[in-house]
Design brief:
The complex is a heterodimer of chains A (417) and B (486).
Chain A (H helix, E strand, L loop, with lengths): L1 H17 L10 E7 L4 H14 L5 E7 L5 H7 L7 E5 L3 H6 L10 H4 L6 H7 L2 H6 L1 E2 L2 E2 L2 E4 L4 E6 L11 H10 L3 E4 L4 H10 L4 E3 L5 E3 L11 H12 L4 E3 L5 H7 L2 E7 L3 H8 L3 E4 L3 E4 L2 E4 L2 E2 L3 E5 L6 H11 L2 H11 L6 H4 L2 H5 L1 H10 L2 E2 L8 H12 L8 H15 L5
Parallel strand pairs in A: 1-2, 1-3, 8-11, 8-12, 16-18
Antiparallel strand pairs in A: 3-17, 4-5, 6-17, 7-12, 7-13, 9-10, 14-15
Chain B lengths: L1 H32 L2 H5 L6 H5 L3 H25 L13 E4 L4 E4 L5 H37 L7 H7 L5 H27 L21 H6 L9 H35 L6 H13 L2 H11 L5 H8 L2 H7 L16 H27 L3 H9 L4 H29 L2 H8 L8 H4 L9 H10 L4 H27 L9
Antiparallel strand pairs in B: 1-2
Helix pairs in contact in B: 1-5, 4-5, 5-7, 7-20, 9-14, 9-16, 10-14, 11-17, 14-16, 16-20, 19-20
Classes of the chains: A alpha/beta (417), B mainly alpha (486).
């Protein structure tokens, strides 16, 4: 590894001395690109287009399979051996930046000018939330590629009306009357945070990598964490509510017992099959907090394409990453893969608005929050959701709920080691 | 009996030190009493052989010496001098717009330093032994020469490696393999436990350093970690031992009973039944366990059936279940029992195979005479079959217990993604009630990059297994119990 780097540096130095040309054309640029298995064909096409953009330069671009959801695990195993350019889900960005696995794109403004752009153009072209999520400590670390990593409500319009799905109370009442159930995952901090975010609670990441969490106090909107939990217990204790294990949602949709479910675009196909003509999707319902109706929030998730901090050909890697995420590429991702774009222009197109799932996601986006949490967040928050799902917390035991919230916050905010 | 056992262990340890001492004194004698060429061999390893006209050996030893020196200068010196600090230079990167490339400084990687230093130490240790052995050998040659004995030619030496020294030829490759693939990684694991290698100190972007016994202190409640880490550790350790005990003995007894049943003359078509049971082995655990996990999940087929036949309702009424489903794999207690039961299902066929083999070799005369004396089948089982089984399969039983302590597959495949703990104190330390030490360790490294604690736990697991194995082996097969069955 060391030898390779020294060699690369010497080579680089030699090229600088031999020619003052802007780019040395004689050298083949080797890059590796990792993307999801189902995107491979499209990525192949995009890479060919990218090569055609720079006919003077010879490339050797290898495309590998690595799912966005597991990119972090694979990359952090050996950063130096990982791909130059890779796709990943937005919640991994802190760990990746922390491990030096992502380039700070602010240093690459000059490179982008080769594609006729500035970094500000990129930021302006994508929806604000996606840029915010890709920004760590004020610097952009990845190019937004998709804005479809969030959840909303699928429902069967032959069972439920639009009024029914406006609030959890009416939703559960209607489902009970129809002998059906409403499903949601509670045992995951990604899903159950939606109740807290809706009531104005927040998470943040501290300088030292620890997670800040205020759920055991009072939110700026004036609700207490205990009130929110009582609202959640009210939902979970309904016989028409089905608490679904994390990762089991698709199975349960196919099971046929559900008339509504909280999930994301990845379940569009399953929901369409299960609900048939009644297939519909909308924003999440409101829920009762301290006697008032509060809009349930959500986690706004994105898919990014980043450049490895240890990439040697980092200039070309940045150009490739930008190319894969530009407007025309995002259009292709939508056309071929039904991937919800983060590019504002593509998002505004008629085709995207006609897509039920994506337009529901768009409606929920208003209430979406970028979830800034570290690794310590997940286990305690999953357990907290499971406590509610299994009915271990009682709605009239304020002290018990407060204690559980305090323990949750203690676990989440614990120092990172 | 106890004294004898102690004596055995002491003798073994003593024997080891004795042979080390013998080797050292041989070396001392050789070096002191050897002639000038023997002494010269300490610097030029081929000297002694060259003097006794073993030129091929002289060349080989010289080449070996040169290789070790080259290894030291070219490779080891990059890493070993930094072993004390595990590196000080952090990565810095500059982007060169002219070449479109990132240029890196010559940064340190704590992990490479640790790994390659350990590797160098192993190489040097081996080189030291060879160097000493070399001096002993050339001194022996000198004495043979003085006594006028025949000194082997190179061809004769080579020949000896397929004759009287054949064991050396056979063992070279395995020993090399064990050193590289087992010994060095274990050394690495041990050393990582004394560093702060975790998510905040992950090479190559950050360096880690030595921290002494801090990790072990926090494992046993000395603070520094989450307040619940030692709480979780004790519980996980407890379940690990309970699990290993039940998983081992249920499948062991079950396997013996099943093979007795299949071997019984009253069983029809024993081959058919045996094949049927072996099919569970033939299907990979990844498939069968994941399927079973889905069967027993909260919304799985078993739950649907139980709800339809009214079992779920009944259990709710008597207060065993508080949820609308039976939490087969998602509540403590339930999950613990289910995991052991499912393990019986996949574990028994293996034990059945072993037991069948052993039962076929049961001394027939003993059985016959017992039967003639009027022993009942139960008595035969308790007095002859079981003691014999225990004697023959005792070592395998010990191995099974140790294997079960580290039985990653069953636990992980059955509970990952299904089991969410409701114990907040456990969750705050990323543990679950159904975790074995090894699955907890896996998630600590895989999801939380907490390599230092994982290593510390790994060492504890190793100590538990080693102590248990030593104790059990000594008890079961030491001290001439073999004679009982001769």
């Amino acid at each position: 590894m060391r030898v390779k780097k020294v060699l690369a540096c010497t080579l680089a130095a030699a090229t600088v001395m031999s020619s003052a040309a802007y780019v040395s054309a004689e050298e083949t640029i080797s890059l590796t690109l990792w993307g999801a298995e189902e995107d491979q064909t499209l990525l192949g096409e995009l890479v060919e287009e990218f090569k055609a953009q720079y006919p003077d330069q010879t490339f050797d671009i290898q495309i590998g399979v690595e799912s966005e959801s597991t990119a972090k695990d694979t990359i952090l195993t050996d950063v130096e051996a990982a791909a130059d350019v890779f796709a990943f889900a937005s919640d991994q960005i802190f760990d990746l930046v922390n491990a030096g696995a992502l380039l700070n794109l602010e240093e690459y403004g000059e490179v982008l000018s080769m594609a006729g752009k500035t970094l500000d153009d990129v930021k302006a072209a994508n929806v604000a939330g996606s840029v915010e999520a890709a920004t760590v400590d004020g610097s952009l670390y990845a190019f937004p590629r998709a804005a479809d990593n969030g959840y909303f409500l699928y429902y069967d319009s032959s069972v439920l009306t639009e009024e029914d799905v406006a609030s959890w109370d009416s939703l559960l009442a209607a489902a009970e009357a129809a002998g059906k159930q409403v499903g949601m995952t509670l045992a995951s901090g990604w899903y159950n945070a939606s109740f807290f975010y809706g009531a104005g609670f927040t998470n943040a990441l501290n300088e030292d990598g620890t997670t800040a969490m205020d759920w055991n106090g009072t939110s700026p909107a004036g609700y207490t964490g205990v009130d929110v939990v009582k609202g959640m217990i009210g939902i979970a204790s309904s016989p028409a509510f089905m608490a679904i294990a994390d990762g089991d949602i698709t199975n349960q949709i196919a099971g046929g017992q559900l008339c509504a479910v909280v999930s994301g675009t990845w379940d569009a196909q399953a929901a369409q099959t299960a609900f048939g003509d009644g297939y519909a999707a909308t924003k999440l319902p409101t829920f009762t907090v301290a006697g008032e109706q509060v809009q349930q929030g959500s986690v706004a998730g994105y898919k990014f394409v980043g450049v490895n901090g240890y990439s040697v050909n980092s200039g070309w890697a940045v150009l490739l990453a930008e190319f894969i995420t530009n407007e025309s590429s995002q259009q292709k991702f939508f056309d071929q893969r039904e991937s919800g774009p983060s590019n504002s222009n593509v998002l505004a197109s008629d085709a995207v608005s006609a897509n039920l799932a994506l337009s529901a996601l768009g409606k929920q986006a208003e209430f979406g929050v970028v979830q800034n949490v570290g690794g310590k967040f997940w286990d305690p928050s999953a357990t907290f959701g499971e406590l509610i799902a299994q009915g271990n917390l009682s709605a009239d035991d304020d002290a018990g709920i407060q204690e559980a919230l305090d323990t949750l916050v203690e676990g989440v905010t614990a120092p990172v080691e | 009996m106890a004294n004898q056992k102690k004596g055995g262990a002491v003798a073994a340890v003593g024997g080891f030190f004795k042979s080390v001492g013998g080797f050292l004194s041989d070396f001392g004698t050789a070096f002191v009493k050897g002639d000038v060429f023997v002494k010269l061999s300490a610097v030029w390893m081929g000297a002694g052989y060259a003097r006794r006209r073993q030129y091929a050996k002289a060349v080989i030893m010289t080449a070996l010496e040169a290789a070790v020196i080259a290894f030291t200068i070219v490779f080891a010196m990059q890493y070993v001098p930094k072993f004390g600090t595990l590196g000080t230079v952090t990565m810095e990167r500059v982007f060169n717009m002219q070449t479109m490339k990132s240029e890196f400084n010559d940064y340190d990687n704590s992990f490479s330093i640790l790994l390659f230093s350990l590797f160098s130490f192993v190489i040097w240790a081996a080189a030291l032994v060879i160097w000493m052995k070399n001096i002993i050998n050339v001194y022996r040659l000198q004495k043979m020469d003085e006594a006028g004995e025949h000194i082997n030619t190179f061809r004769e030496d080579l020949h000896s490696y397929i004759e009287d020294k054949f064991h050396i030829t056979l063992l070279t490759l395995p020993v090399l393999g064990i050193t590289v693939f087992t010994f060095v990684p274990i050394l690495l694991l041990i050393f990582v436990a004394f560093t702060n290698y975790d998510q905040q100190h992950m090479p190559p972007s950050a360096l880690f350093s030595w921290t002494g016994f801090t990790n072990f202190l926090s494992l046993f409640g000395g603070g520094g970690l989450t307040t619940t880490f030692s709480y979780a550790f004790v519980r996980v350790l407890g379940w690990t031992l309970v699990w290993a005990f039940f998983a081992t003995f249920t499948t062991y007894i079950g396997g013996i009973l099943l093979s007795l049943l299949l071997n019984s003359q009253k069983t029809r078509a024993p081959r058919f039944w045996r094949t049927l049971f072996i099919i569970t082995i033939a299907v990979p655990q990844f498939v069968s366990l994941l399927l079973v996990r889905n069967f027993f999940s909260n919304g799985g087929i078993v739950n649907t059936i139980c709800a339809n036949i009214g079992l779920t309702g009944f259990l709710r009424n008597i207060g065993l279940v508080s949820t609308s489903y039976i939490p087969f794999l998602s509540a403590p207690g339930w999950a613990h029992v289910m995991i052991i039961l499912i393990n019986i299902w996949i574990g028994i066929p293996y034990q059945m195979l072993i037991a069948t083999g052993v039962l076929m070799n049961l001394p027939a005369d003993q059985l016959e005479s017992a039967r003639v004396d009027g022993a009942k089948p139960y008595q035969i089982f308790a007095k002859i079959t079981m003691p014999y089984m225990l004697f023959v399969t005792g070592p395998a039983l010990v191995t099974d217990f140790v294997k079960n302590i580290n039985n990653f597959n069953v636990i992980y495949l059955l509970t990952e993604g299904v089991y969410t703990t409701t114990n907040q104190a456990m969750a705050n330390s990323q543990a679950k009630e159904v975790d074995l030490l090894v699955t907890w360790l896996f998630r600590l490294t895989q999801d939380y990059y907490n390599y230092k604690m994982a290593s510390a736990i790994g060492i504890i697991v190793f100590i538990i297994c080693a102590v248990f194995t030593l104790f059990a082996f000594n008890r079961m097969i030491g001290n001439g119990r073999e004679e009982d069955y001769q």
